[in-house]
Design a protein that fits this description.
The complex is a heterotrimer of chains A (277), B (251) and C (249).
Chain A (H helix, E strand, L loop, with lengths): L24 E11 L5 E12 L4 E5 L6 H8 L7 E6 L4 H6 L3 E4 L11 H11 L6 H10 L15 H13 L5 E5 L7 H17 L3 E6 L2 H7 L2 E5 L6 E6 L14 H20 L1
Chain B lengths: L1 H30 L9 H10 L1 H34 L2 H15 L3 H12 L3 H24 L4 H9 L4 H39 L3 H11 L3 H33 L1
Chain C lengths: L1 H26 L10 H7 L5 H36 L4 H13 L2 H11 L1 H25 L5 H9 L4 H37 L6 H10 L3 H33 L1
Classes of the chains: A alpha/beta (277), B mainly alpha (251), C mainly alpha (249).
Chain lengths: 277, 251, 249
Amino acid sequence: MTSTAVRSPQRLPIDRPAPVTGSGIALRGVSKEYPLKRKTSLRALDGLDLEVAPGEFVALLGPSGCGKSTVLRLVAGLEEASAGAVDVEGRPPAQLAREHRLGVAFQEHALLPWASIRSNVALPFQVAGRPVDDRRVDDLLRLVGLGGFENARPKQLSGGMRQRAAIARALALDPDVLLLDEPFGALDAVTRRRMNAELARIWSEQQITTLLVTHDVDEAVLLADRIVVMTGRPGRVRYTCTVDIPRPRGADVTRTPEFHGLVDTLTAMLDSADETA
Amino acid sequence: MTAARSVLTGLLHYWPLALIVVLWDLWVVVNGYTETVAPRPWAVFADVGANVGEYVPDLAYTLVMSLAGLGLGTLAALIAGIGVWRSAAISGVVTPAALVLRSVPVTAMIPVIARLLGYNDSTVLAITAIICFFPVFVFTVSGLASASQSGRDLFAVLGASTATTLRRLHLLTAVPSIMVAIRITAPTAVLAAMLAEFLIGAHGLGHLFSTARSYMEMDRAWGTAVVATALSVLTFVGARALERAVVARVT
Amino acid sequence: MRGSALRRLYPVLGVIALVVLVEVVGRFELAGKSWPPLTEVLASLGQPGRLDLVLRSLGATAVAAAAGLVLGTVLATAGAALGLLVPVARPGMDRLAAILNAVPLIALAPLLIMTVGREGTPTVIAALGVGFVMFVALSSGLLAASRTHQDVFTVLGAARLTRLRRLQFPAALPYFLDGLALAGPTAVLGATIGEWFGAPSGLGVLIVSAMQNFQIPLLWSAALSATLLSLLAYVLFSRVQVLAARRFA
C-alpha cells in the first residue's frame, strides 16, 4: 500500500501548530470513592474542579497518593467518577476514546515488547482500523528523535528512548487531548531533564490540549502553561498558578530567579500538602 | 436474598455440569442409541443411586490405593531429593535421568512394571507410587536448590550445621514446589491406580469398570466413569486445599 | 570455567548412567526375566518384520497424538477466547476445564469406542487431555498483558477483537508454547490410552498385547518408542518456547 495516497482525515502537518478548537477538559465537583470491605470506602477525590482550556498545557502537581493519577484516569475514561461531571471536548471521555481521539503515555512505557518501534508507533492506526500512514509515522519518529531506530525492539532501546516512542505513539492519530501520567517518572534525573526539553520542543510544534500528572516541580514549571497543586487524600485543588516564563524554555531558563522563585513556592506548597495528608 | 445470590453464583460456576448432562442425554436420544451402546444420564444416576453398596468398596479401594501410592511415592521422592541435594554432582547426574523417566507414558510404564512385579494388588500400589515418585522428585530437587544466595550466606555466617541449614532454610524454601508437585500429581495417582486396576487388578474402580464392560452392563460402566471422575475431582480439590494451607503456613 | 563445563556434562552422564543401569540389570537378570538387557531389545528389532511392526505402530500413535494435539489446541483456544470475550461464561468454563481434566482418561476410552469408533478414540482422548492443559495455559496467558498495556488499548479506543488480536494473543504466546511443551507428552499418553482399548494399530495396542503374550523384548521396544515419542514432543516444544521467549519477553 502506498502511504501517501491514504491519510487519516484529521491529519495535520507537524510543522504547523494545530488550530485551537474544541472545549478542552472540564471536571466539575468530581468525587471518586473506591469501595473497600463491608460498606467502608476510600475517598480518593472530593469535589474537585479542574479546567484545561483548548490548546493549554496544564500540569497537575501533588504528593504521591494524592489522587492525581485518578484525575488522569477519569479524564482518560479508564474510570468513572462517583459524583460530578467529567467532560472532554464536551463529551464523556469514554466516547472520545472510542472515537480514537485521545493520546496517552504512562510512567511505564507500555510498548508492545514483540513489536518494532515503528509498529508500536503505528499501533493507534491499527487499533482505529485505519490504514497506517507511513509518512506520519516517519515524521513522528523523527520528531521524537528516533529516526534510524524504526526496526529496533523496545528492549534494545534506553529508558528515555522508550518513553519518546511512547509519546510518539500517543501523538500518532493527532489526538484532541494528550494525557501524560508521570511519563518520565522512571528515568534518572539527567535523562529526565533532557526529556523535559524534548517534550517542550515537541509540544511547541503541535499545541495539543495536554494534562500532565507529575510530582516533579521542575518538570511542571518547564512544561506547563498553568500548574494545579493538589492536596493529599482526599484530593482537592489547593492552588493554581500560571507560568509566565516565555517559551521556548531552554536550559538557561532553569538558572533564572523567576524559575527558582516559582519552584520554591510550589515545593513549599507540596511540603505542606504532604503534612496535611 | 443471600440464598438467591448463592443459587446465582452456583449457576454461574456450575452451568457446564448441567450442560454436559443435557448434551449427553440429547446426544443419546438424537442418535437413537440403545441401552447397550450408550445409556441416558438418568439411567446411570439411577444405577449409582440404587447400588451405592456395589460402588463403595471399589471406590474406597481406589481411593486408598491412590492416596497410599501418592504418599509412598512422595516420601520416597523427598528422601531421594534430600539425598541428592548434598552434592551438585549427584543431583546434576540424577535429575536428567529422572526427567527422562518422568516422560515415560503411564501406559508404557504400567505393563512393564506389571510384568516385573507380577499380577497382584501390591503391584497396583507399587505402580501408583512409582508413577508419583518422578514428578515429586524433580520438584523437590529444584525446590531445595532454589534457596536464595543471601539466605545461604546468612546461614553460613551464623555457622549453622548442614542439618540445620537443610531444615530451616532449604526444606522451607522447597515446601511450595513440593506442594505444587503433590497437587499436579494427585489426579495422576487416581488415573495410575485405575489404569493398573483395569489391566491387572482384582479390586477397585478400574476393575469394576473392566468387569462391567465385559458383561456389557453399560449403566454400571458409565456409572463407574462418573464416580471415578468425582473421586478425581475431589482428590484434586483436596490437594489444592492442602497446598494452600501448607503454603500459607510457611510463607 | 572447568566447573561449568563439568556441570554441562552432568545430564549426559546421567542419561548414560541410566542406560548402563538398565543394561546391567537386564544382563545379570537382577530383576528377573521381564527386564531384558537393552542390547537384546535393540537386537530383537532385527527379527524379520519386527522393526516394521514397531515403526508402523509408532507412526499410528504419532498421527493420533498429533491430530489430538491440533484438535485439543483449537478447542482450548476457542474456549479461552470465548471466556475472555464473554466474561459471564468464564467461571463456568474454568470449572468445565477442571472437570474435564479430572475425568480419568481411562473411563472415557470404552465409551468413546462405542461412539466415535476404534480409529477415532485415541485422537479424541489425546484431544481431551491436551484441551485441558492448553485451556489452563491460555486462560492465564490471555490475562498476562499488563494493566498499563490494557489501559493504553482502552484509551486508544480498541474494540474487543482488536485488543484480542493485537495485545492479548501475542502476550499469551509464551504461555501457549509452555502449554504445548506439557501437552505434547499428554497427547502421546492420551493416544496410547485410547489404543489400549482395541484400536487397529498403535504403540498402546502393541504394549498390551506384548505384555499379555510375554513378548518381553517387544514390550520394551514399544514402551521405549512411546517414551522417545513423548520426550521428542517435549524437547521440540521446549526449544520453540525458549526461542520465542527471547523475542516476546
